[in-house]
From TrEMBL:
Family indicated by similarity: Belongs to the type III secretion exporter family.
Region (Disordered): 1-26, 224-243, 359-378
Organism: Sphingomonas abietis
Alphabetical list of Gene3D superfamilies matching this protein: secretion proteins EscU (3.40.1690.10)
Highest taxon of the lineage: Bacteria
Signal peptide: none
The protein's name: Flagellar type III secretion system protein FlhB
Listed Basic and acidic residues bias regions: 224-234
Keyword Isomerase: no
Transmembrane segments: 34-59, 93-116, 137-164, 190-211
Pfam families: Bac_export_2
UniProt keywords, alphabetically: Cell projection, Cilium, Flagellum, Membrane, Transmembrane, Transmembrane helix
Amino acid sequence: MAEGGDSGEKSEAPSQKRLKESSDKGDVLQSKELGVALVMIVGAGWLALGGPLLVQALAELLRGSLSFGRSAIDDFEPGQAILARMGAIAVPVFLLFGATIAAAVGTPALLGAFGFRWGAIAFKGDRINPLSGIKRIFGMQGIVELSKALAKIVVMGAIGWWLLSSRMAKITTMGRGDIASSMIAVGHDFVYAVIVMAMGLVLIAGVDVPVQMIRRTARLRMSKQEVKEEHKQSEGSPELKGAIRRRQMETARRSARTQVAEASVVLTNPTHFAVALRYRPGQDPAPIVVARGRGATADAIRALAEEFDVPMLRYPQLARAIYFTTRSGQIIREDLYIAVATVLAFVFNIDRAMAEGRSQPEIDVPGEVRFDENGEPE
């Protein structure tokens, strides 16, 4: 009973398959606070770099609009005049729009959630369900969102109070100077305030992003039973794997039937590899690999060898050496000639050897062609 109860507990980390499926449905890692912070930083950077350009363009616009000569009256072209005046303003404004759009798009890219997903705009009944809405408001999600809102109020309020208190004396005496210098000072103070507030939002985003990661991971956690079911679906049931293996064997048998039928001997691993060799004295210059395979292909070669009464001998190192160094239709390596010749001599006289009670001969495979089952040198 305890085992059945544990299977329903979400105690396992989400698998890559579950993460991908949730991402395809629109459930991705996202942080509104990070997006707002990036947009604020980009806006502050634009104010610091492009703000003076915009102020200068506005001054030129005002100056050009309030001054005109006789030619402006004689050749009055309002459209051309508007384009000429607005063109200077368009450049910094478009830079601002482009930078903020890039920041908004860059937020999901930083979180690894960049891209359009149709599942995100699909109809979901819980979005219009009043009970689900109440649960979101008064549940854990509502508490987290309320906490973030209060944190923003506290942080931004503290920053605002610090900015005002540190510059109160300067603000109260600003009216005693000339308007131009006062406006420049106000602009600098405004840019500084925006940058500091953007840093405050970055601080909040630095807390919000890990919280969102933890919440998403917790939301997607799996029970032990779900992990088992997913593994079963990924790997396939034993019945399905058996059917696939049978189909692979049938395919391999059809393709290797003619080659194995003319083989002189089949060398096995004994289960993972199989190599079929042919040597016809006077016709073949050296032993030739007519078929080779591992797994289902090896099974098919062994089955065909039994069907055509081709001798099968167990030589694991020699079978792997030929498999990893020679392809089908090629002559074996020269450094394997002695070992293969010893095997073929036994095969060609196998009836007499069996009658005399002799077992298959021992052979020596050169060290440079000794491999393990993964093809790594031994």
